[in-house]
Each structure stands twice: as structure tokens, then as C-alpha cells.
Amino acid sequence: MKIVVVGGGTSGLLSALALEKKGHDVVVLEKDKVGGLCRSEYIDGYTVDIGIHAITMLNDGPLIRLLKKYSRYLPNFRPYGDYYIRTDKLYNIPVSMQEWTTTPVVPNKDKILITTKIIDLMTSGFSKETSVYDIIKDMNLSKTSIDFFNTICYFLSGEDAKKTPLWRLFTGAGYIPEDDILPFIYKDLKINPLKTVLFKKFSRNKIMDILNAGFLSSIKSGSKKYINKFINKNRYWTQGYPLGGVQSICNCILYSLTKTDIRNEEVKRIIETSSETNSNSNDNSNNNSNNNNNHKNGYIVETDKNSYYADIVIYSAPSRYLPDIAQIPEIQKNKKDFKNIKFTKSLTVWIGHEENPFPYMGSEVWIDYPCWATCTSNYDKSLAPNGKHLLGFSFTNTKKEEVLNIIENKLGLNLNKADMIHFQEAIPEQASCAVNQFFVYPKVKDNFYVVGTDADPRSMGITRAAYSVEVMLSELDNTFNKNNKNK
Ligand SMILES: Cc1cc2nc3c(=O)[nH]c(=O)nc-3n(C[C@H](O)[C@H](O)[C@H](O)COP(=O)(O)OP(=O)(O)OC[C@H]3O[C@@H](n4cnc5c(N)ncnc54)[C@H](O)[C@@H]3O)c2cc1C
Fold first, then answer.
1. So what's the ipTM on this one?
2. Biased-composition ranges for Low complexity (predicted)?
3. CATH number at residue 326
4. Could you give the number of structural domains in the chain?
5. What are 420-471's pLDDT values in tens digits?
6. CB within 6 Å of ligand 1 — which residues?
7. pLDDT tens per residue across span 339-369
8. 348 alpha carbon to ligand 1 midpoint, in Å?
9. 264 and 196 share a domain?
10. Ligand 1 atom 19, closest CA
């Protein structure tokens, strides 16, 4: 089959890798830099990633599963370390009930209120639309505790407590398994029970039972299990940071691709081929493109330079642009949902310095001015010149001067002595896990798929992108099997 992959970030490249190994003829069209956000830049002797990264679920998550199956080798991940919170000093972020009741981060009065509320919510259930703020607003919590929740929400969902659903806080903290929430995420899942490839371990009837019983009763029925997780949660993280920076994940995929054709072109339009479009289409192809007017039931993918025929399209660019690009009824029907996908911008500052205010493995969050910070050269010294450290700070605020002042004041770090300062503005995930967010299901139709962080709500960034690729591959296999049976 001829497959065109739109976008060459993690999700596009992983899709290309798997599909190439399955014997397809794959072209990747990337408008900018191959790797997308999973890249590192070389700035004044430092190797800086696009945003600061922790790679999740390295024990047995979708990224590792896909790489083990299709790539030539695995990137070398260093264990991540721990997560801290900086107030007057550095403290562990509380995860278990015992840590919640003893943490110095929030006032004593709040600790009791928060722990009893968590157990109460898991027992009595809550609705899918309940936000974190809906719960904390009437608890009379201190400003520190509210700031704490806002910050944790930003980093789990991309939104503050008002826009973050409570389920995201509980799944992100590891108290509620993501699979328990998943049946309720995709808007049209109930309408089309065929879309159950996500839930291979459950029967279709079980999924329909869960959906019919509703979100509230599903949470209630899992409450014992969830409370147990809250009480016993340990600080063992299955996370890591790749030696060489996140570019090494991208390189691992690129070195494993042997036949895929990767081109630097921007996709402008995707149209379905029919006898009408075939006879009317202008053949503006050059020798490199694979446009062929004899094809049927596929797509013409038009770029700024060429046009390509595809039996199957895998779209990995932001889905909110899809209605403008793809003249396909299944997409136009949900145009409003696609265009309303919410996302958040972040500002990352990389600083090269001879001082290292983070002499530990892991990262820290600040709650009075939400920030996530780490030192990547703690994992790999080669990311910074000799005797220097590479410090990364990701903010939800995008005012450059302001964030530099905050860093200086918070850490007592003299930025006049900085060896390098580099700013990046980016969108970490194409869909924030917000209340009522629309997620695109990876299978739009038999020969059109969407992958990326707006096509799966599970986990974070790169792992989330990989989850969507796994779903796409299973759906594609199902379609091939179905078509083979019908032959
Ligand atoms: C500040 C920050 C912190 C982060 N922290 C983490 C973290 O801790 N852990 C983690 O796992 N992830 C993290 N991420 C996110 C992670 O890197 C991304 O979510 C992931 O790499 C996204 O991969 P993707 O393929 O879905 O999207 P992208 O990497 O965005 O790839 C999409 C590609 O499509 C291309 N494209 C768009 N339109 C077109 C078009 N019309 N034609 C052709 N090409 C097109 C784009 O140029 C882009 O290269 C972070 C990101 C940032 C910015």
C-alpha cells in the first residue's frame, strides 16, 4: 500500500517505522524540522531539547513496546530520579496518603481536609466534568494549597485547576488507572462500538456495560482499588531521560527507517480520489511525486511542491487544522469539535551556567509562579561544555523578562554570569486534558487515521503520541483482516 504520513514528529516517525516494517511504501511529509518537538538544538556548545522532558512508562509503555518491536536498537535511558517542590526548601511532592499527611508543603489544617476529601470523592464518585477547582473552592484551603493544585494541574493537563478535570488529577497521580476513564473519552465511542480496539482486554459487551452504567457508577465501583492505591502509592517512577537528549529518541527511529522517503514539504490539501477528481485533477506532479490518476478510493495529498497519491493517509500534524486541509466528510462533519481543541503554550528557558542549583537527579516545581525545572547535564555531562551545567525551566507564563527575574530571585542565581540563555516557545501537547476536551479517535475511516497528542488522552507527550500510534496500528490491522476475510 502507498501510505503518506503528514508530519515528521514522534507520532509520524513511529507510524512510518511500523508501517515500513510491515511492508508498506511510506512517504513522510514534514513542513519544518524532522523530529518535531522530539528534537534537540545545538546552542553555543549546549544540547538543548525543545522543552524539558521526562519520558514516562519506560517499564512497559507504548514507546518502548513500539521501539522493541520495530527499531534497530533502544535509546539509552537514565533513571529519572524524583519529583520535588521548592518552597522555603526542597521537599518531595506528596504522592501517598502518608506523605500527604506529613508533607510540610501545605498547612496542617489543609492536609487533613485534602486526604479525607480524596477518599470521600473516590467513595462517592464524581462526574466526568467535575473540575479540580469545583472540589477545592469550598474547602477553605490556604493560598499555598490552591497554588499547589494549580501548578500540579498545569503540568498534568496543560490547564489550571478550573479547567482540569478531577479524573486527570487522579489518573496523573496514579490512583485511578487511565483505562478506567478511557471508555468515556471519545465522543462517538458509544455510537460506534466497533471502535473498541483500545480495550482489547475487555469484551465489547463489558465496554458497553461500562458506558451504559455511566462515569459516576464506574468510579464508585472501582473505589476500593483506588483508595488502596492512594494509601500505598510508592515513589517508584518508571521514567527516564535519554542520554544525548530527546534527539536520541528521534535518531533511534530515523536510523531504523531504511526505505521511508522523508521530504521537506508542507501539506496544503488532502482530497479523496474518485472518478471525478481523477479525471479533473491537474497533474502538477514532478518526477519525484507518486501522483497517479489511475488510482481509486484513495487520496491526493497536495503539498507546496508536489502532489502524492495515497491508499492510506496517517495525519500527525495538529488536528485542529485538519478541517482546513482535508475535504473529507467524516472530518467536515465534526469541524467545530476539531477547531475547538484546546491547547496551551509554554515558554522554556535554557541556561548554561557554572553553578548548578539542582544537585540531584530529577526535577522540581515551583508553585507561587508555576515552573518545572531540571538540570539535564546531571543525566548526561556531554550536553554542556566542560565545567558548565545545562539548566532548563518550563513556564506557563510567556513573558521573557519576568521569568528571568523569577529564576534569579528563586535560586539566587546570577544570570549576568550565565554562559548561555536560550528561549523556546512551544505547545507541549496538541490537546490539553481539559474538562470537555474533544479527542480525535485515531481511526477516522478505513483509510484515514490521525495520530499525535490530540488523538489519545493517556500519559504525557511522547508516550501519549506513541499510544495513539499503537491504536492506529491495531485499527489498521483490523481493517486489513476484515478486508482479507471479505475477499
Ligand atoms: C515545554 C515542553 C515540555 C515537554 N515535556 C515533555 C515531557 O516531559 N515528556 C514527554 O513525553 N513529552 C514532553 N513534551 C512533548 C513532546 O515532545 C511532544 O508531545 C511529542 O514530541 C509530540 O509528538 P507529535 O508527533 O505528536 O507532534 P509534533 O512533534 O508536534 O510533530 C508534528 C509535526 O507535524 C509537522 N506539521 C504540521 N503541519 C504540517 C503540514 N501541514 N505539513 C507537513 N508537516 C506538518 C510539524 O512541523 C511537526 O514537526 C514537551 C514539550 C514541550 C514543548
1. 0.99
2. 278-294
3. 3.50.50.60
4. 3
5. 999 999 999 999 999 999 999 898 998 999 999 999 999 999 999 999 999 8
6. 6-12, 29-32, 36-38, 50-55, 266-267, 316-317, 346, 348, 394, 426, 428-429, 452-453, 460-463, 465
7. 999 999 999 999 999 999 999 999 999 999 9
8. 14
9. no
10. 461
